[in-house]
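Example 9 (inverse folding). The structure is encoded as follows.
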């Protein structure tokens, strides 16, 4: 078994207290994520991994840094943002009690562990900036902070007559009501 996410543990298997550390840059072997954003195949993933031998197996702890790419969920602008995740998992020895991950021979294959950690950390509704105004509901064009304050045509044309109604008209109507009551 080999690959950029597979780490050798032969010299620490069943030797509790022993530890090995690895720093690796590896390409994502496939697209990770199915939403508006994902880590694309071939994107660099920086790994800082520590393998520790314990009685039950090999404890894997580390961080993974990469970049996700996609589109803003509000304005559909292309975005690319860094993502960093921490992970820790026990890779048990074969034949031990039920665990999520099992040691494969003398190697630890962390690809699924790292992929799951990264995909779960991706935003469900990514935005290009926290206050992104999104798209104009009528024209479909991107709004800007300045443009969002400009009056736009109402979505429903039946309400168009209300645009001619002003605060002065409201004051005149109240004045007329007061004189009728007298």
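The amino acid assigned to each position is listed next.
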């Amino acid at each position: 078994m080999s690959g950029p996410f597979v780490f050798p543990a032969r010299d620490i298997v069943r030797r509790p207290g022993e530890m090995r550390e690895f720093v690796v840059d590896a390409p994502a072997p496939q697209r990770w994520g199915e939403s508006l954003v994902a880590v694309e195949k071939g994107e660099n993933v920086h790994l800082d991994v520590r393998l520790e031998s314990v009685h039950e197996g090999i404890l894997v702890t580390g961080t993974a840094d990469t970049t996700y790419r996609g589109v803003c969920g509000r304005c559909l602008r292309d975005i690319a943002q860094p993502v960093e995740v921490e992970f820790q998992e026990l890779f048990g020895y074969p034949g031990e009690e039920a665990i999520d991950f099992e040691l494969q021979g003398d190697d630890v294959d962390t690809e699924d562990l790292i992929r799951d950690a990264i995909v779960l950390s991706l935003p469900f509704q990514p935005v290009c900036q926290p206050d992104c105004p999104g798209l104009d509901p009528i024209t479909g064009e991107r709004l800007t902070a300045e443009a969002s304050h400009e009056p736009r045509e109402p979505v429903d044309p039946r309400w168009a007559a209300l645009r001619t109604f002003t605060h002065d008209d409201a004051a005149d109507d109240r004045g007329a009501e007061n004189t009728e009551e007298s």
